[in-house]
Inverse folding.
């Protein structure tokens, strides 16, 4: 559909009757901007949810969020502890169909969008990409690393 919206104005310019090129301007295509707030992280597999926790937003600060630009790239806005200063990570999200690459907790993650609607987006990825982060946040899981590496992580984002 987006391609069609781009092609139709382009074709009309090619076949326009006016010979005065200076007076004809095509409509500017405005970029699509959507903002998503990370909300919940689930660890499990198709049969069972092993562990679930809220995304760790910095207490006392605005919520972190990802601003998607044209649904293909993004800027991730995080807030520093204590100061609430905003840290912007450009290209924190790259998308090709439902396959995505994003940067979360300073870690590049490859995943797949399994749910996307007007209110929510859920990205699923292999938990093995998060093992270091999971162990840092939950040292008690250290004896279960082999099991962790077989699980999936689902990151739920809510539309801002």
């Amino acid at each position: 559909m987006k391609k069609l919206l781009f092609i139709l104005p382009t074709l009309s310019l090619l076949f326009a009757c006016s010979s005065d090129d200076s007076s004809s301007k095509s409509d500017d295509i405005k970029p699509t901007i959507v903002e998503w707030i990370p909300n919940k992280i689930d660890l499990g597999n198709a049969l069972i949810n092993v562990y679930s926790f809220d995304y760790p937003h910095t207490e006392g600060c605005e919520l972190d969020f990802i601003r998607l630009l044209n649904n293909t790239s993004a800027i991730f806005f995080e807030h520093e502890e204590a100061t609430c200063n905003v840290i912007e990570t450009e290209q924190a999200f790259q998308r090709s169909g439902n396959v995505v690459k994003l940067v979360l907790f300073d870690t590049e993650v490859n995943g797949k969008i399994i749910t996307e609607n007007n209110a929510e987006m859920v990205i699923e990825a292999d938990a093995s990409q998060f093992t270091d982060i999971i162990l840092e946040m939950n040292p008690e899981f250290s004896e279960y690393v082999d099991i962790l590496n077989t699980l999936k992580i689902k990151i739920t984002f809510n539309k801002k």
Remarks:
- The CA atoms of residues 96 and 110 lie 11 Å apart.
- Confidence is low (pLDDT under 50) at residues 1-26.
